[in-house]
Amino acid sequence: MAGRRKPPEINASSMADIAFLLLIFFLVTTTIVEDKGVLVKLPPWSSEPPETQKMNTRNVYSVLVNAENQLLVRGEPMRLEDLRKNTKIFISNPDRMPNMAETPTKAIVSLKNDRGTKYNTYLQVYNELKAAYNELRDELANKRHGKNLEFCTSAQQNEIRSELPLVISEAEPTNFGEEN
Amino acid sequence: MGKFASKKGKEMPAISTASLPDIIFMLLFFFMVVTVLRDAELMVSVNTPSATELTKLEKKSLVNYIYIGRPMKKWQALYGTSPQMQLGDKFASVEEIPLFLENHKITVPENQRPSISSSLKVDGEVTMGIVGDVKLALRKANQLKVNYSAKTRSN
């Protein structure tokens, strides 16, 4: 026992400095990115021209966005703010109008833009169309299950999604107003 | 002076800094966890539009990023001011998209490949011409899950 010494204490005061150094490194390299966006499923590509499908015009909701970022919906100009409301009316067709969708499952939204259309406008239009469907789905979910779609079980969600399918068909853009 | 003389000998006790490393380590771990090391420097200016119907990108390793925007100031002498696409850390043409997608795909385990999605980070002021070309190239490469990156906007 005589030879045993008390172990020397390790000085930990530089620990903070080391930790600080690492901290500053991670502070500098950090980018807290919120990666969110509008999810889109593109149609598969085929080299043959698609077979022309005769659609009943009452079921097609055609939206055109020109190079001036103006909207033409079913042949009539429309403001972006009114698009969501009108799309909802078209899909659900509450008054059984003869010029609107027979049933929501048959409704198709056709979107076409120019090459000169601003990306911002395009995304806003897409967003409004998607929002119209999401609101209708939420309304249906509330009516049936008393809660919003995201709180329903996945079986209920799938059922509602299949009753209100989001079909946005995009045509090839026309060559107007391409900038350089 | 008499007032202060009475305090002589009663010095303020030294504040113990022994717990300082712990606090710093806590901060360090927080930043280590939230850090995403950006693998590529952005060469185009991208200011994404804002939207409401957003979906969160779940797994970072299953996402490949395509940037479209006007080249930043220091690149304008070389690449001009018209909108360009950036893949990885360099400017690229639409023809290079299939190779880029393939290079990303081989880093992903085979059973997860169907859930690979492309995140399009596009500047709001860019016209749809180049975006349409990229979309067409993605369709031809059978990369159909696309996420148009956007900021959150409340209604």
Describe the secondary-structure layout.
The complex is a heterodimer of chains A (180) and B (155).
Chain A: H1 15-29, E1 36-41, E2 60-65, E3 71-73, E4 76-78, H2 80-92, E5 108-113, H3 119-145, H4 154-163, E6 168-170
Helix pairs in contact in A: 2-3
Chain B: H1 2-5, H2 20-34, E1 44-45, E2 50-51, E3 55-56, E4 63-71, H3 76-79, E5 84-87, E6 90-92, H4 97-105, E7 117-122, H5 128-140, E8 145-149, E9 151-152
What is the terminal-to-terminal distance of chain A? 88 Å
Instruction: Briefly note the structural class of the backbone of chain B.
Output: alpha/beta
Question: Percent of residues of chain A in beta strands?
Answer: 15-25%
Shape of chain B: elongated
Total count of strands of chain B: 9
Largest interface: A-B, 50 and 57 residues
- Strand arrangement across the biggest beta sheet of chain A: 4-3-2-5-6
CATH structural architecture of chain B: 2-Layer Sandwich
Q: Radius of gyration of chain A, Cα only, in angstroms?
A: 28 Å
Helices and strands of chain B, in order, run as HHEEEEHEEHEHEE
Radius of gyration of chain B: 25 Å
Shape of chain A: elongated
